[in-house]
Amino acid sequence: MTVLGSRPAATAAHPAAPGDRAVRAVRAVPRARRARRRVRRVPLNLAALAVLAVSVFPVYWMAVTAFTPTRDIQSTTPSFWPAHPTLAHFATAVGADGFGLFWRNSLLVTLSAVLLSLVVALPAACAVARMRWRGRRGFVLMVFIAQMAPWEALLISMFIIARDTGLLDKLAMLTLIYFMTTLPFTIVTLRGFLAAIPGELEEAAMMDGASRAGAFRRVVLPLLAPGLMSTSLFGFITAWNEFAFANALIIKNQDDRTLPVWLSSFGNIFGTDWGATMAAASLFMLPVLLIFLVLQRRVVSGAFAGAVKG
Amino acid sequence: MSLTSVTQPVPAAARRLARAWPYILVAPAVAGTCFLLLYPLLRSVVISFQHFRTGELIRGGAAFVGLENYRQVLGDAEFWTVVRRTFVWTAVNVALIMLISTLVALMIARLGPRMRLAVMSGLVLTWATPVLAATTIFQWMFQSRLGVVNWLLVRVGLDGFQGHTWFADGTSTFAILVMLVVWQSVPFAAITLYAGLTTIPAELDEAARIDGAGPFQVFRDVTFPILRPLFGLITSLEVIWVFKCFAQIWAISGGGPDGATTTLPIYAFQIAQSLHKYDLGSAISTLTVLILIVALIAHMRRMLRHEGEVA
Amino acid sequence: MRYRLLAATGVLALAAGLTACGSSSPSTGSSGGADPGTAGSGTAPAKLTVWVMRDSFSDALLDRFAAGYRKDHPGVTLDIQIQEWDGIGQKVTSGLASNDAPDVIEVGNTQVAEYAASGGVRDLTDKIADLGGADWLPGLAEPGKIDGHQYGIPWYAANRVVIYNKDLFAKAGIAAPPRTRDEWITATGRLDKGGDQGIYLAGQNWYTLAGFIWDEGGDLAVKEGDTWKGALDTPQALAGMDFYKKLQALGDGPKDSDEANPPQIDVFAKGDVAQLIATPGAAVAIEKANPKLAGRLGFFPIPGKTADRPGAVFTGGSDLIIPEASRNPEAAYEVVKALAGEKFQLDMAKEMSYVPNRVSLGSALSGSEGTAAMAAGAANGHATPNSPNWAAVEAKNVIKEFMTKALTSGDPAAEARAASQTIATILNTKS
After folding, report:
1. Chains that touch A (3 or more CB pairs under 8 A)
2. Which CATH superfamily is domain A97-309 in?
3. Fewer Cβ neighbours under 10 Å: the N or C end of chain C?
4. What is the ipTM of this complex?
5. Rounded CA gap, C224 and C427, in Å?
6. How high does pLDDT run on average in chain C?
């Protein structure tokens, strides 16, 4: 968005801006008003707690169930804290047929797709954000329309294409499809980040004798790091989740199935064993959570700031 | 812009290369889109003009039937029911998502730093929950015999919910799916809106307040007009995502019970994959894309105008 | 054609790039390459893929077969893959349409026609004599034969019985299994005490409902002249549904899902369920899931309205097909021959209590309690409406959703009218 894009990168630089404002305001008022203000904030904080509870509870419930022994899960009164925590459900989930294999397949496909998507999207984003050329608007329109692609509807034509190119039953085909599902969003977001980095920085570096590529690598790339990370995070989540194509295109090579396909037959594998089911769901969620923890706040603020400017 | 500013008097060949650069840079993306999106899309459109069932899929040699499939789809009352339902589904979800995330964003902006961090972390946790995991969790929470929701409702005195089967009834399944989708979508919208809020200069706010404006008026007269483009972007993204939503619905209800949660993507999938009428399924998908494009055409035009300004 | 080639090169180029990223290597040259071990070179080493449905057979039985086959056919590896019922139509269709299909597929006897009509199934008419086809069970051979061509090779048949937990019956003081519906309801009510369930009957077990409806003299759909009519709203069908509702209430079966979700075998194996409606082979899986139940399971035919006639049942069973796209049709036929042959059939009849594919092998059934119950029920066997569109009725879950609504809402008759309407629409569609 132009309006916001032209503003300095306020979000990333001062994530606590409104807080500062609050502090300033508090200092300026006498103590009695401050107390009144605190009272006024009680409903606000209660609302915040409610939002927190609603957003966290389902995930919390999954974790609690995963650690609770089956006997307690089956009891009529649910326990909100695992009184006798157990790892048995995780053992069941990990020990299930092929879990490790499918986990590895998923990770391989997802990481390859995200990497490929970044490698292809970055130059394209540069061209859109930094250069003027005929066909640029058309390209942007194409990227936007690509975001609307009804992927499930392409199952049958993808099947035919995979068959005719000998890529049926191959993880490579899945990788290509996941690459394509994440590409449009990656281009749009990276472009937003690039637009926020002043072109003068590059020019200054080039004045100092750096080549164009050198300037990009030494000046732009470091500034772009959060953007790269947050877009790859989004790509990771999308590809990690995908089920329909994984289910339709892996037919005979059952060892090439991915985790979501395996997860979808939860009921068939664990039956009424909700403990194991929740343990498997936790393990499915784990990589995404780990990446979030590693990349942490930088990425999160970056991700949404990127979207603001996108 | 930087391209032109560094250009010195250079040989013609180098200049031609410089002019070719943007095309070289977008070439891989364009190639990928052509082969992996445009081509499958075209094939799908072609199928929608053919008689294409299991036999044609296996033996090949599909015959063209003109607009016959479209005539059949558009002439089916069920299709129009599904279209209506998809609009209701999208409207309800997007309205709830926008309303709740605006409130949450405004709330976050007014919180103390510690509380803000806690709420943001909670939202991020929700956002990070993979769709399939979330779907499984919701099934577990609403399970009839051991589900925590029924237990809670009985606890607060609603004994009728003892062993209540949520997924047997169309309306309640629809409502649970709305809850699931809203729950998953609010974090992205709320945090993005909050990031937008932080770019509004505090002075504008205060000035309006000094003029005697209430919180609602401040929002209507100051905040919203400034963030209008951002609201536009988020709304259109959510419209796309909710309209196309497939995995959640398919995993929880498969479009049932009795079609109460069958939206266009589910309908197309059922026709194509369960009934093996690939031709009709492709026709429905083509129509789905057309409907979506028409619905978002205003937004796309605005976006392209901006592109013009930037260039 | 040129477009296809263009796309192929494009996709392959991208795939080649991928290989560099450390993804699994796509075998770029395989699309037109030589097929290893095809017709003529039957002795060449080959890996054959066989698709068997979940819970059709015990692992032990399949392992035994695979081991024996390897000994008799050195160089041939059997990859027996278990398929889920969920979404099987899509899966088999994809398999038939691929270039490298599974070599042998288990297909429900009523589904052979649909697959064969698509042209993806190998015609095995010339092998009938070799397989002893004169002696085949008609219930399996007929559905496998379309326009005089034999596509499906009969494999096994089975119908549902009641499996019960002898300990829980003894605890409730029930000496003999019930023989009429009234006795059945009374006994089940007595068993449904404390933490125990009288019967585990999922709300959407529609084959069982069909049996109750046939008992009343009704049907799922009837053909009048050239048009089909849904028959769930007839008084007979409603009476059947009413009985189902009464029975279903005597346990904790979920009203909104079928017997596969959660797998009813696992539920029963927990040991607190007195009865289960399943094929006798399910007992093997139950004992495997909970060895403590070994020897504690009994069988009786689904009770009918009177003691002299057991309840009606759906005659189920499976055929074997070889896809046209199998790369090893000759070797695949050898596998089919072994699976349909006497040795496996007898082993299977003993272990799984299934009815063998040949009438003359029927004597193998005598002696076991499960098969005796099944044979008694089989005397009153029925089939689903004979229309190529019936598969669509199943795929759209019309009956299952009707059942859930009839079990949870107050007006089954209105729901039945709506469902019958839907069935009629589907069956009367020209495909």
Report:
1. B, C
2. MetI-like (1.10.3720.10)
3. N
4. 0.80
5. 12
6. 82
